[in-house]
Design brief:
six-stranded antiparallel β-sheet, Jelly Rolls
């Protein structure tokens, strides 16, 4: 749907996966109400009847995904793009083929440049045995331009405490709270993205913002810097809002004119919105599962290289490693140094 004269160009229903625009490729929003954990960091609940290894049916409000003991995504390859994983609640245990590992969550973001190829595992350890273990996260795929698709893999963590939140109050004291995961807002800039990322270029206008809009709050999103920048708002939870004069209910997205100021007004209660924007790469995209290249020959080469090299091999004892229950949040980088928030 479109509306002449409005900054809203299109309103669409969020499908599976969500609709994205260049330079973004994919957005997954995982919400799982996991029960208390057991001694193996898996769910202390029956798994009978679940198609373990391919459990996406959401019985009882949670999935095992490709995990069989611990929920999550055991080792799998990527080439040609980046994953940005923002965890609102719960925890992720990461391990990869270049030797990095981490436990992150509760507001942390991991940014992984696959480049010429990486294998990584993303498991969801259920750390609490005396209470439930809710998990909510976004995984966003950001494309790489052709010249960067053969870049070295790069692992980085953006810890919760280092990720800025900008709060805007309207005349009635109602607030828009914005987590700036990438880009700049109101003079506040997110931690730097990986060096080969499209987001690392100063003219690409990439922004990833997580917006919590209180009931009735009024906020005007400033225009983007680039004339050809594209912007999408995903209203994924909470009360209906008005975006650029158009009502948008949860479960819908809005493609908007990024060159115009965008007034947003909250509804009766809190609304949560994910904003993605960036200047398009405008190159061919040919993808097959975990590989995103610019032509079919590149995809075939990715499969051949993965079969031959395993993108560096797998240095872990199993394909879905989890860390000890008391490991805390940490990141171990490929050079061996350990960082904690």
């Amino acid at each position: 749907m479109t509306s002449a004269g409005s900054p809203v160009l299109q309103v669409f229903e969020l499908g599976s996966p969500w609709q994205t625009i260049d330079p973004f490729l994919f957005v997954a929003h995982h919400v799982d109400d996991y029960p208390a954990g057991n001694g193996a960091l898996g769910p202390d609940a029956p798994l009978d009847g679940r198609p373990l290894g391919q459990d996406f049916g959401n019985p009882a409000g949670w999935n095992m995904y490709h995990g069989t003991v611990v929920p999550g995504f055991p080792g799998h390859p990527h080439r040609g793009f980046e994953t940005v994983t923002f965890v609102r609640s719960g925890f992720v245990d990461h391990s990869d083929s270049v030797g990095a590992s981490a436990r992150f969550g509760d507001g942390d973001t991991q940014w992984l440049t696959a480049g010429r190829g990486i294998v990584h595992s993303e498991m969801f350890p259920l750390l609490h045995r005396d209470r439930e273990n809710p998990l909510e996260l976004f995984q966003i795929w950001l494309n790489l331009p052709a010249e960067s698709k053969s870049a070295d893999p790069h692992f980085s963590m953006l810890w919760d405490g280092d990720t800025p939140t900008v709060t805007f109050d309207d005349d009635a004291g109602r607030t828009a709270s914005v987590r700036v995961l990438a880009g700049t807002l109101g003079g506040t800039t997110a931690p730097p993205p990986p060096p080969d990322s499209w987001a690392s270029r100063p003219d690409t206008d990439v922004a990833i913002w997580s917006i919590d809009l209180s009931g009735g709050a009024r906020w005007e999103i400033p225009p983007a810097a680039g004339a050809d920048t594209q912007r999408v708002l995903y209203v994924y939870d909470g009360a209906p809002v008005t975006i650029g004069g158009r009502p948008v209910t949860a479960g819908h997205g809005a493609v908007v004119d990024a060159s115009m100021p965008l007034p947003v007004t909250g509804g009766a209660d809190t609304t949560r919105i994910l904003l993605l924007q960036g200047r398009p790469i405008r190159e061919p995209v040919v993808s097959y599962g975990p590989f995103v290249l610019t032509d079919e020959a590149g995809v075939r080469q990715a499969f051949a290289d993965y079969r031959r090299t395993g993108f560096g091999g797998w240095p872990w004892d199993d394909d879905g490693p989890v860390h000890s229950v008391d490991a805390g949040r940490f990141a171990r980088y490929p050079d061996g140094h350990i960082e904690k928030p």
